Automatic annotation (TrEMBL):
<dbReference type="InterPro" id="IPR037219">
    <property type="entry name" value="Peptidase_M41-like"/>
</dbReference>
<protein>
    <submittedName>
        <fullName>ATP-dependent zinc metalloprotease</fullName>
    </submittedName>
</protein>
<dbReference type="GO" id="GO:0005524">
    <property type="term" value="F:ATP binding"/>
</dbReference>
<dbReference type="GO" id="GO:0006508">
    <property type="term" value="P:proteolysis"/>
</dbReference>
<dbReference type="GO" id="GO:0004222">
    <property type="term" value="F:metalloendopeptidase activity"/>
</dbReference>
<keyword id="KW-0378">Hydrolase</keyword>
<keyword id="KW-0482">Metalloprotease</keyword>
<keyword id="KW-0645">Protease</keyword>
<dbReference type="GO" id="GO:0004176">
    <property type="term" value="F:ATP-dependent peptidase activity"/>
</dbReference>
């Protein structure tokens, strides 16, 4: 007798059909539950990330960003709400740059820029690194004038009280002093005290007190912003990670920055070369361009430079590491070449430089300043 395998009529057993339907839907439900878990985890990590940014903890903020990036790559996102969540939250990635100023490990700062660039946030970071390989190397004063329309003397930093707005301030001070003495008002004790304080400030504090007072004068402060924005933009375009921009002279002194303000940047190649007792020409060129960018920015906007004396001194000290050392003529040519390269790069990207100046003037954070630069450069295309 043949054995007939009985056929299963699912419709005849409603309860069985219900169980099978639940089993059929379970993967989808599991998928949805997993998606909600991913969202809750992402929100928790974003909150942790924001806390790390507030604490200026670069290592922690960068670790969380990398963790969240890995999560979005492997997690099965479900629904537009989750995609929208990550689309909105990734706008905060920029904020990791605001933690760089407090970072002691500059390689960590470089990692933050590399991470953002790899994610497509910093398309112009390091875009002009190879510009140092272009153009003639011999830049005479005549070549500099023909290219910029300015005499070489216009790029030379001025001593305080001898030119520009500082000269006007000096004339006003001397005129006021003479008038008071002519009126028979003895101000010699006050004058001696002022000169004594100025001497202490210049000798022991690097002139930061006078710089702090001068920074409150709008025209002078505007020039400082133009100068530092020049450093910042050229460092960014040359691929040198920027640790931060310090505009307060007292804070600059506390952080060991000479001068009225400072832009802290890092060139890994040059740092490694100096550690090994040598200096690669390309890295040196790139460094010099960033170093003279502040002077070039002032010359471009005002027709001459006033600040930059500390930049020139740093240039001379760096030249001492070169083997063989540069002659005076070679140092002068290197300075002019660097000025011309930075001047042209700033001229080509005036909108980006102006955007950086406005952002610094509004006391925006570093992440906002760099975002404004990227926005300005994207509209120029």
């Amino acid at each position: 007798m043949a054995f007939a395998s009985p056929s299963l009529d699912v419709g005849a057993f409603p309860h069985t059909r219900s169980l099978l339907s639940k089993k059929a839907r379970s993967p989808k439900r599991h998928h949805s539950q997993l998606g909600r878990i991913v969202v809750r985890s992402a929100l928790r990590e974003w909150n942790d990330y924001e806390d790390a940014v507030k604490r200026k903890d670069l290592a922690g903020a960068l670790r969380l960003l990398k963790s969240m990036e890995e999560a979005t790559e492997v997690a099965p996102l479900n629904g537009s709400s989750q995609l929208g969540l990550f689309g909105v939250e990734t706008r905060r990635d920029w904020e990791v740059l605001d933690t760089c100023l407090n970072a002691d490990d500059l390689r960590l700062v470089a990692n933050a820029y590399s991470f953002l660039k790899n994610r497509g946030f910093l398309p112009n970071f390091g875009k002009f690194t190879n510009i140092v390989l272009e153009g003639a190397r011999n830049v005479t004063p005549d070549v500099l004038k023909a290219s910029t329309g300015l005499e070489a003397s216009k790029f030379a930093p001025k001593k305080w009280g001898l030119s520009g707005s500082s000269q006007l301030a000096m004339i006003t001070f001397l005129g006021g002093t003479s008038f008071l003495l002519w009126q028979g008002i003895d101000i010699r004790p006050n004058l001696a005290a002022i000169l004594g304080l100025a001497f202490v400030d210049s000798t022991f504090l690097g002139g930061c007190c006078l710089a702090q007072i001068s920074s409150y004068w709008p025209p002078h402060r505007r020039r400082i912003l133009v100068h530092e924005a020049g450093h910042l933009l050229i460092a960014y375009l040359m691929g040198c990670p920027i640790r931060g921009v310090i505009l307060d002279p007292i804070v600059a002194m506390q952080m060991g920055v000479q001068g009225q303000a400072g832009t802290q940047f890092w060139d890994e190649k040059m740092s490694n070369d100096l550690t090994e007792g040598r200096l690669d020409g390309t890295a040196f060129d790139r460094y010099c361009m960033v170093l003279f960018a502040g002077i070039a920015a002032e010359a471009l906007i005002y027709g001459e430079a006033e600040g930059g004396e500390n930049d020139e001194n740093l240039f001379r000290r760096t030249c001492a590491f070169l083997q063989p050392p540069l002659s005076i003529a070679e140092m002068s040519n290197q300075a002019r070449w660097s000025l011309l390269q930075s001047y042209n790069l700033l001229k080509w990207h005036k909108h980006a430089h102006r955007a950086a100046v406005k952002a610094l003037e509004s006391r925006c954070s570093l992440s906002v300043v760099i975002k404004r630069i990227e926005d300005a450069m994207s509209t120029d295309r």
